[in-house]
Design a protein that fits this description.
four-stranded antiparallel sheet, 6 helices, 228 residues
């Protein structure tokens, strides 16, 4: 299953007129591939991610997630689709201070109506996948910045999403830790078959992507395969 945006236009009120954030954007992200979306601040990257996450409804165009067109879906149906099919890795991990690394993941099961206790084996599996099985009992203040971001990634995968959306995951990390996080996202994309979109203004690590798409003034330059 893939993520597809077709002829998407998004505008915001701007005084007497409207500001175009996305201008007829089309993007297809096949399962098991990583597409890096790059561009300067204010270019439309965050708007693209929000539309792909079904957090914002575009003015025109269609968004299809895991074979489901989202046009016309109610808020409740969109929320259910996000829980089932979309994992979001936020720029800041925003982990709950009182919870351990394992509990951060188990909360996702609770939000999906499942028993957190029964979800613990799944949480441990994912922490092991991101190299943190031995840190499962630690709380955020006991983890490094890179480790917190790894918990953030594992949490996004807790409900086995089809689509993985990643927002500037290396912005608060040094080069080596940032590279390790990008390598992890790339590996998990291949292993778990997610359609992954990585939004970043830093081109340092985008060589790991299958395709690179550039956003300028709301327009998306067609995604091109990387040469690596």
């Amino acid at each position: 299953m893939s993520l597809t945006l077709t002829d998407v236009t998004l505008t915001y009120p701007d005084g007497p007129g409207r500001l175009t954030a996305l201008d007829h954007v089309t993007l297809d992200v096949p399962a098991g591939t990583l597409t890096a979306v790059v561009g300067p601040s204010g270019s439309g990257k965050s708007s693209l991610l929000a539309v792909a996450a079904t957090l914002i409804t575009p003015d025109h165009g269609t968004v299809t997630v895991a074979g489901t067109p989202t046009t016309g879906l109610s808020r409740a149906h969109l929320a259910d689709l996000r829980r089932r099919a979309i994992g979001i890795v936020f720029q800041q991990p925003n982990l709950l201070p009182a919870l351990t690394a394992a509990e951060q993941l188990q909360v996702m099961a609770h939000l999906d109506g499942r028993s957190p206790a029964r979800a613990r084996p799944r949480a441990m599996e994912l922490l092991d996948a991101v190299g943190l099985a031995d840190q499962a009992g630690r709380r955020p203040h006991q983890l490094s910045g890179g480790q917190r971001q790894r918990v953030n990634i594992a949490r996004a995968l807790m409900n086995d999403p089809t689509v993985l959306l990643v927002d500037e995951p290396t912005s608060a990390l040094d080069h080596d830790r940032g590279a390790a996080v990008i390598d992890l996202i790339t590996r998990l994309t291949r292993q778990r078959g997610t359609a992954t979109v990585l939004v970043t203004h830093d081109r340092t690590h985008v060589g790991a992507a299958d395709r690179i798409a550039e956003v300028h003034d709301g327009r998306l330059r067609a995604a091109a395969p990387t040469t690596s």
